[in-house]
Design goal:
The protein is of the alpha+beta class and about 600 residues long. It contains 15 helices and 23 strands. The protein folds into three domains: about 90 residues, no CATH class; about 130 residues, OB fold (Dihydrolipoamide Acetyltransferase, E2P) (Beta Barrel); about 210 residues, no CATH class. The strands form eight sheets. Strands 5-6-7-9-8 form a five-stranded mixed beta barrel. A five-stranded antiparallel beta sheet has the order 20-19-16-21-22. A two-stranded antiparallel ribbon has the order 1-4.
């Protein structure tokens, strides 16, 4: 390396310009020439500065500066503001620090208070923009005892709201779920507060959940509660000004992907497998009725054991109730056969079951009603319409339409997960700090495309009044809900005739001959409409076009789709919105109300 003094000027020939970590730099090679001009010998502007050129320590110089370049050296030196040049002592410190190259990379399990580290982690929760800063939640799927412990709550209800054991509100018949932690459970996640210019970079690049980030010079210290470690990205000034210490990492292929990223992906894959096994065990225990108070996180101390007197009173009351029921059954035996519970359609499809059958039903009309939040502004009571509410409902409905149009398209390739772990599938790979080269793990990697369910159903309210217009809505059916509904795993239905046949049989139990009706409806539709995409309307409140024509064809064909009980969840998604008047989600976006099917199953024979 050439010995450069403070204030010297440098001419570089044959170097490559590169941009790394948001900063430009020069990369030298074997033909690069670095020429140094002694600042104490540079003449006045406009004069030849060749006499200030120091002798090179290289035996051979490929390029010597010409007269014009030597004159420009003096002009450049004369135009420099000498007050911005560091002092000799400051320059020597900077020079020593530049030689002190040490490995700052650290996995999150090894971080401690007071450390400044570089790390690679995944964004596990949507970033929170507070205006002057952005908060990230990241994980590299290692555990640290000083991180906050995120527990699995199973979707418990919001504290303070009166709900039953299933989380349903007894007042309105809907469920207000608690905001469940979306990242890895346990002490695997770190909260990071990012100030400018890093916050601006996060907004500009739109880093969202699922993005892998390379974080540099991350400060780790205790948070405000003084109990858990948190991270901070503050303004970092270098020689070239502000530095951006957050950038996205891509898993492109096994050769170019960083070893640290591949190790993190491997840990994520192992964690997801562990999480699925644990959730499966919890579900099995709940189904078998094996849950204990400690498993659900409930305070067992609140349930007081009854004393002897209370037991005698309870037994006496139970005997009296049984006697009354026996007498009532004898008197009303003849009339009970003709009675139908209130609100249940007479032609209810009993081959379709749903969760929480003892909960009251909510009509689709009530589900679609807007919800208002009452607030006091300047002393006046104001009702603010909410774009959506997080709520679960149980209702009676029938399927009147479905998307996509063909059952073969009800399943699609799950390419994202396969692509994410594709960099780990090379045979013979042996990265440090990993044991992924085992034969069992290689078999676990997806050799081909995996498939998932993804379709939508249009549900119509099961109103008994044929003359009255029945409201309807579109519900999305994701892979998990579809597996419960159909009791089938997704596959390539265009090449899996057996699974396609089973799917058609299960859906016939759900909607009767609706498939034949929709094919007839498509044949009668104009050519322009047939060429449209197989997607439901953008908004679940949109009833679509030509409803009257569809109902007429339905009456003509006599479609045999009976109503059934099902569970519907309401939620919101953020979509792009160019109209500032409708952009209620901020940042050029708005909230769009959506509905999804869950907890419903076709009981196939």
């Amino acid at each position: 390396m050439p010995d450069v003094k403070c204030g010297d000027l440098v001419i570089v020939f044959g170097a490559k310009v590169q941009c790394y970590e948001s900063a430009f730099s020069l990369c030298t090679n074997k033909v690069t020439d670095v020429l140094i001009y002694d600042s104490t010998k540079i003449p006045k502007p406009g004069n030849d500065a060749s006499r200030a050129l120091r002798p090179s320590n290289r035996s051979r110089i490929g390029r010597q500066p010409n007269k014009t370049e030597n004159e420009f050296v003096s002009i450049l030196y004369g135009s420099i503001n000498k007050e911005k040049v560091p002092t000799e002592s400051e320059f020597e410190i900077m020079k020593m620090n530049s030689k002190n190259v040490k490995k700052k990379f650290s996995e999150l399990k090894d971080v401690r208070e007071g450390m400044f580290i570089n790390t690679i982690a995944e964004v596990v929760k949507e970033p929170y923009d507070a205006g002057d800063k952005v908060t990230l939640w990241v994980s590299d799927y290692t555990e640290n005892d000083q991180f906050y412990h995120h527990k699995f709550t199973g979707g418990a209800s919001v504290g303070g709201q009166k709900t039953d054991s299933h989380g349903y509100s007894k007042k309105v018949g809907s469920w207000q779920p608690k905001s469940e932690w979306a990242g890895p459970f346990g002490k695997r996640s770190l909260q990071i507060t990012c100030f400018d210019p890093h916050a601006s970079a996060i907004r500009e690049h739109n880093f969202t959940k699922g993005t892998w980030l390379f974080l540099r010079n991350l400060q780790v210290k205790l948070g405000r509660d003084l109990n858990n470690l948190e991270g901070y990205l503050r303004e970092d000034r270098g020689v070239q000004g502000q530095k951006i210490n957050v950038s996205e990492e891509h898993a492109v292929d096994s050769e170019t992907t960083k070893t640290e990223l591949k190790n993190a992906l491997r840990r994520k894959r192992d964690y997801e497998k562990l999480r699925k096994d644990q959730l499966r065990a919890i579900t099995a225990a709940a189904t078998a009725g094996l849950k204990r108070p400690g498993d659900t996180g409930l305070d067992a101390g609140r349930a007081k054991m009854p004393n002897s007197k209370a037991k005698r009173n309870a037994n006496r009351a139970a005997k009296q109730q049984a006697y009354k029921q026996k007498r009532g059954q004898q008197n009303d035996a003849s009339s009970s056969e003709d009675m139908v519970p209130t609100g249940v359609p007479k032609d209810l499809n009993t081959q379709v079951k749903c969760e929480n059958a003892n909960q009251p039903t909510t009509s689709i009309t009530d589900i679609l009603k807007p919800v208002f939040h009452e607030a006091t502004i300047d002393g006046d009571e104001v009702k603010i319409p909410l774009p959506f509410v997080n709520a679960n409902h149980r209702t009676h409905a029938r399927v009147v339409e479905f998307m996509p149009r063909k059952l073969e398209d009800f399943a699609r390739p799950r390419t994202q997960a396969a692509a994410e772990y594709a960099v780990l599938s090379d045979a013979g790979e042996s990265d440090s700090d990993s044991s992924c080269g085992s034969e069992s793990e290689q078999k676990a990697l997806p050799a081909a495309k995996s498939w998932e369910w993804r379709f939508s159903l249009k549900l119509e309210d099961a109103s008994p009044d044929e003359q009255q217009a029945r409201p309807s809505l579109w519900v999305a059916v994701d892979n998990q809900s579809a597996q419960m509904l159909l009791n089938l795993d997704a596959s390539d239905l265009r090449n899996d005739d057996e699974n396609l046949g089973q799917l058609r049989q299960r859906l016939f139990l759900l909607w009767g001959d609706l498939e034949e009706y929709q094919i007839t409806l498509e044949d009668q539709a104009p050519v322009g409409r047939r060429r449209g995409d197989d997607r439901p309307p953008a908004d679940s409140d949109d009833e679509g076009e030509a409803q009257s024509r569809a109902k007429a064809v339905r009456r003509q064909l006599g479609v045999s789709n009976r109503p059934f009980a099902c569970c519907i969840r309401q939620y919101g998604v953020r979509v792009k919105e160019d109209d500032e008047g409708r952009a209620d989600a901020g940042g050029g976006g708005r909230w769009q109300r959506m509905f999804g099917l869950f907890g419903t199953r076709i009981c196939a024979p």
